[in-house]
Amino acid sequence: MQSRNQSNTSSAFAFSSLLRLWPWLRPNKKLVVIGSSMIPVVALISMLQPIAVQRAIDNGILKGDLQTTLQWAGVCLGLSFASYIFTAIQSLTTSTAVHRMIRDLRVTLIAHILRLAPAWHDHQISGALTTRATSDFDTLSDSLNQGVLSSLIDVMVLVGCIAGMFFLSAKLAVTAIIILPLITWIVIWFSRRLNQVMLASRKNLSALNGFTQEALTSLNAVKLLNAEPSVTKRFGSLNNQYRDAQLQNVFYDSLMFATIDGISSITLGIVLFITIKSSGHGSDLTAGILVAFVQYVQQLFEPLKQLGSKMAMLQGAFTSMERIFGLLDRKDHVHGEQPVSWTNAVDIRFDHVSFAYGDGGQDILKDVSFDVAAGSSLAIIGSTGSGKSTIIKLMTKLYDGYRGDIKIAGEPIFEKSPENMRRHMGIVPQDIVLFEGSVAFNIGLNRQGTTLHDIETAAKIVGADSFIDLFPETYAFQVREHGANLSHGQRQLIVFARALVGLPPILILDEATSSIDPQSEALIQAATAKLLAGRTVIVIAHRLQTIKRCRSVLVLEHGVVREFGSPQVLAAANGRYSELIKIAATGLAPSH
User: Fold this and answer.
1) Nearest to 453 by CA among 524, 501, 506, 507
2) Which domains does the chain have, with CATH numbers?
3) Tens digit of pLDDT for each residue in 92-105?
4) Residues in contact with 437: Cβ distance below 8 Å, sequence separation at least 6, in sequence order
5) Which of 290, 410, 581, 585 is 20 to 30 A from 449, comparing alpha carbons?
6) HSE-up of 549 (CA within 13 Å, CB side)?
């Protein structure tokens, strides 16, 4: 009973999933209608072809009537030609509609994944998400094209064959179709096994893709640690698991085809035996009927062979849809829809803010309070893990779920749109991220309203134009993946210029100069002095020279505010900030 309920639930989910595809299929409904209308036509032609052969043999060849033979031969030729034409139209229209639907659905999924909160991404494997956005869609496309629509054709051809058999000879028709219950049971049994191995194959492929992406992303670390043998061994193990699952799929698929082929041959032999045995007793079974029945038996079992593998493909499609719509149904978004309209520097205020990553986790920030006046600048310093970057993540609404209150321009940010807020912020993250494309694209990122003039202005402010103008194509110069054809300092300056496009009222530098060469740092330090005027600036940096330019300093320790005030006041207070100045004076790297 439980298994039956699970099956009913699974079938209900499968059909509901197919219905959920309609919003993406609706723009191509004309193609779907045209393709669907071809299905009964193709089935009817398949039913008529053996009858035309029977008429040509019995009414033409056996009677020596050349004209009748040529007429029915022409009918057979016309039916064959029509079958190819209508099948091509059906395949072309439905495949075009499905591929367009897959394209639009893939874009929708990627946009949805990008909008999901970082808190959700923290628990995901990027390689597995890549599989969902690529391989799952390929499986869905193949299954819909070769599974759903082709299965409809197979079923209608099957019905047409049975109707044609009874039209010619009810006795032979009963003999041929009496085996159908056994064939149906065989198809269902094999489809279940194929579904199991297909699911295992999908899981193994997801694990293989995830590990491959992780290994390639960490290629430099793998080489430096001489970890190539262990990585290759792990890849080989995952690859073998995927291969074994694929081989199981081939085994069951081949065994099913061989079994049905054998039953088809036996059935055909029985039909021939009955025909020959009955031919001497005044039977109305003729040579033409015998030839037509041979064709019908072949047409009858061919769709049954295909249905087994297609049922497994359909299960693969339902699995892919479950994974795709499972992502689309995720509601892990950062709260807020109200837009902001900051045009000038704004004030920022944290009021008794506490925050922990994940439910029940330990607080990273503990009752943090500070304020930054409009047009002022704040430097945040502290040891690793003290909560510096967490403050930036909350301020930019990468995360919510904090306790306390965060206000910008005097308004709580809880109801504000995260995307809209970030359009008014220039952010230089700790990690440098460059994309394959032109320098102009890497600075402007094709953001709405961004012009080449805006890009060039931002590059001049940070001094990036000094090397961009030397490139063969200047701002059209193609940057390789991860900026492989640029120096570290050049990559950092391009990211810095990216943050300044449009001259945002808030500028956030998250350890932006922590790992660049002195010459590049000097350019950024000179630019920073200009940027402090007219906008609100938050700086997280190791360099005390940068910190001294800021009007106030926030010293964090284990998520707690230890000191807050101007650099001059804190330097004279003989506290943690004072210690950092003394360490810098000795030439030792500060431990924050």
Assistant:
1) 501
2) 16-328 (1.20.1560.10), 342-424+505-592 (3.40.50.300), 433-503 (3.40.50.300)
3) 888 888 888 888 88
4) 478, 479
5) 410
6) 18
